[in-house]
Design a protein that fits this description.
The protein is α+β, with helices and mostly antiparallel strands. It has two domains: 3-173, Regulatory protein AraC (Jelly Rolls, Sandwich), CATH 2.60.120.280; 175-290, Homeodomain-like (Arc Repressor Mutant, subunit A, Orthogonal Bundle), CATH 1.10.10. The chain has helices at residues 133-145, 152-173, 176-194, 202-209, 213-223, 228-246, 251-257, 263-274, 278-289; strands at 3-8, 13-22, 31-32, 36-43, 45-50, 53-58, 61-65, 70-73, 81-89, 94-97, 108-110, 119-125, 127-129. The strands form three sheets. The chain has a five-stranded antiparallel beta sheet with strand order 2-9-4-7-13, with helices on one face. A four-stranded antiparallel beta sheet has the order 10-1-12-11, covered by helices on one side. A four-stranded antiparallel beta sheet has the order 3-8-5-6, with no helix packed on it. Helix 3 packs across helix 5 (213-223) and helix 6 packs across helix 9. The longest helix is centred in the middle third of the chain and has 22 residues, at 152-173. It is elongated, with a radius of gyration of 27 Å.
Length: 290
């Protein structure tokens, strides 16, 4: 099944929901619904068909049925099947994308400014297994506990709790292995193109890639075994060693050309990583080059 993708804020709007049970031998009715229907199975199996494709939604799994697509039980329940249903709607444009078409790291769409809120893109698989089932269960219990009153503050609190449920599904869905190499490639390309600039920070990298700094760091550690800042230092020192080996430029000039304005700091970083000072490296390189 494909993935539900949309920008937030605004978040989808929770409408209503209930805990329910299909008795053994019972089936979900055939219908085309006008809103999204999130089903979370607590026990048993719901044999659901949507748009001609069958899904066995088992205990601890969920399915999000999309509006405009016919769905129904393709066979009766084998046992009493307990589940939650939650109806919600999305007022903004959304897409149903295939997994291979999604960049799972593309969460940040627009950074916040002084006058505009940050924009994010959520990618929630429409069929999957709950990773943090206890959290989802507790949040749904909180959500349903508010249903007995019509006080405005309770209705607003429903929306906040429903947002937490969607964010947990999004968190469960982030797949670093499928995008780590791509993110690392983009980060490395940016560093190699800008290493000579003094002020390269994680914030710069995050804004360039439109990804959270922690996500970029996890991807690079998974792929290369180093953080972005460690890679930056390593790449700068590689360039410095090339200058030391092949030019007569002074240390302060080399230091500035690799993005480190303080030549004393450059010497300390070089010795810490290489075990010798830049001057010692130059002497050894020239001796070996003779």
């Amino acid at each position: 099944m494909n993935t539900l993708c949309f920008s937030a804020p605004p978040f989808p709007t929770y409408i209503t929901g209930r805990a329910h049970c299909f008795k053994k031998g019972k089936k979900h009715i055939k219908r085309i619904f006008s809103v999204f229907d999130l089903l979370i199975v607590k026990s048993g199996v719901i044999y659901m068909s949507e748009n001609g494709v069958n899904y066995d939604v088992k205990e601890g799994q969920y399915i999000i049925l999309a509006p405009g697509l016919e769905h129904f039980s393709y066979k009766p329940c084998d046992t009493d099947t307990h589940y939650y249903w939650l109806h919600f709607d999305i007022d903004v444009h959304y897409e149903l994308k295939e997994v291979d078409d999604i960049n799972w790291g593309m969460i940040i769409k627009q950074e916040k400014t002084g006058i505009e809120a940050a924009k994010h893109v959520l990618h929630i698989p429409r069929y999957g297994t709950l990773i943090n089932e206890k959290f989802i269960d507790s949040e749904i219990t909180r959500l349903f506990s508010l249903d007995s009153t019509n006080k405005p503050e309770k209705r607003l609190k429903e929306q906040i709790i429903f947002q937490e449920i969607l964010l947990q599904l999004q968190s469960d869905a982030i797949r670093i292995p499928t995008s780590a190499e791509q993110v690392t490639k983009q980060a490395v390309a940016y560093i190699q193109a800008n290493y000579y600039k003094e002020m390269i920070k994680m914030d710069n990298l995050s804004k360039e890639l439109l990804l959270h700094p922690d996500y970029i760091t996890r991807c690079m550690q998974k792929t290369l075994g180093v953080t972005p800042m460690h890679y930056l230092t390593s790449y700068r020192l590689t360039k410095a060693k090339d200058f030391l080996s092949n030019t007569n430029e002074k240390l302060d000039s080399i230091s500035r050309q690799i993005g480190i304005l303080d030549s004393a700091y450059f010497t300390r970083v070089f010795k810490k990583n290489e075990g010798i000072t830049p001057s010692e490296f130059r002497r050894l390189a020239r001796r070996e080059g003779k």
